[in-house]
Specification:
about 240 residues, alpha+beta, 9-stranded mixed β-sheet, 4-stranded antiparallel β-sheet, 15 strands
Amino acid sequence: MRLDKFLSEVGLGSRKEVKQLIKKGQVKVNQVVVKSDKTQVDPEKDQIAFLDAPLIYQEFYYYVLNKPAGVISATSDPVHRTVLDLFSSEDYRTDLFPVGRLDKDTEGLLIITNDGELGHQLLSPKKHVEKEYFAEVSGIMDQADQEKFEVGIILAGEKMLPAKLMIDEVTAVTSKVRIILQEGKFHQVKRMVKACGKEVTYLKRIRMGQLTLPVDLKKGQYRALTDEELVKLKE
């Protein structure tokens, strides 16, 4: 890897900015000042330092975010606030992206990473990675609705994969339910509930695969995944 790319990857600045740091003699490779940005380095073997402070290279970054309503699941947008706008300047990277999308008004668990392969594995319909949601519904959901979910609801002429509807609480006019999907079509939860004659009034994703939303993570907050959580996610 070129030295300027390495320095940019560890967050010292843009490629143009780090070139200036190198020219000023502020960067050392194996304790020797290097002034060529084209110098090739091995992040796993070479000792690289900026102003004598060691720099550690990390290829992939993994974060769990408790998405609040009102922000969109995108990397950038000229009008709306995005989930990456919630990141501090210290943690923000241009290669980070949300794994899948939650609607603007939907809350809950969202994985943010720069690992494209993991993102593909989590979203691939062939992998059948479960996504669990908590929903508040206007209308009474019942056993007939559960059976429809289990068979596979047809939306716009396309049959959805079998899903699971769990009814947690029912009042005279509303329901609180949990829904487990193995796919992630556009507005799928809302459309499936609507196909049953009811309407979702609140939606929150609480699990993806074996990773559940941390109970201590407040809306709008994020943190790096622990090693244990990352193992669960990759399983």
